[in-house]
Amino acid sequence: MNSGTQGSLAVGKVKIFSRHRGEVNSSAFSPNGQTLLTASEDGYVYCWDTHSGKLLWRLGGHTGPVKFCRFSPDGLLVASTSSDHTIRLWDVAEAKCLLVLKGHQRSVETVSFSPDSKQLASGGWDKQVKLWEVQSGQMLHHLVGHRDSVQSSDFAPSSDCLATGSWDSTIRIWDLRAVETVIIHQELEGHSGNISCLCYSVSGLLGSGSWDKTIHIWKPSTRSSLNQLKGHATWVKSIAFSPNGLQLASTGYSNMVKVWDCKTGVCIETLKGVLDVAHTCAFTPDGKLLVSGAVDS
Q1: Around Cβ 116, how many Cβ atoms within 10 Å?
Q2: How many H-runs (helices) and E-runs (strands) does the chain carry?
Q3: At the top level of CATH, which class does the domain 21-157 belong to?
């Protein structure tokens, strides 16, 4: 899909990835958009060629459903989380597990890499956020404060802060600059439902999607919501800023994909009907919009 100018959103190509043995819980595109990850209820992580639809590899090791997956920004690693309470780090080139990170007490629901791919944050049903060193697998910090399950996370472009979203309807910004302890830098309140997704823009603005069917665009330094985006009929499942940070794409737990003008808060594009449920959206470096989701076969 291309969303370069208003009115230009059109379906370019549709590929069906149909070899899962269970429901797909999440999906993620590689930084260059060439490969697609899918995390399945069947306990496996799948990697696909975006253009051909070919299955590149299927990796097992988790002892429960895989809940979430994400590429590292350098594209070399994949992190997956599971209801088996663990995070696994995978080598993309060799298609093998490098590390199993243990420490969560319940299902792990989110994972995110720092911009330099050297640190990893995770959160889950135990209400805790953990910060890990990618190379060694060592736990660096254990962050406590959320009052319900942690479902989303993202690092700021500067790597100085980590944002986490919870079913307690709040977003917490953790200051990572302190050597010994991590402190809550800010708590952002404004949503009336569970926080389902978070994403930083290149300029440091923070987008959040919620079960309240809205998206907020925040300026974290002032704790202010710059825009509230309304238009989804269901809860917001995924958001992504364009490379220049001027647009934001969103998917609801439905067949609807929207593109918004971040400055005005106006929805400039809507596409629906291609997928039954849109799971995730991402922009490629050249500004093309990629969307993956489920189709009822």
Answers
A1: 12
A2: 0, 26
A3: mainly beta
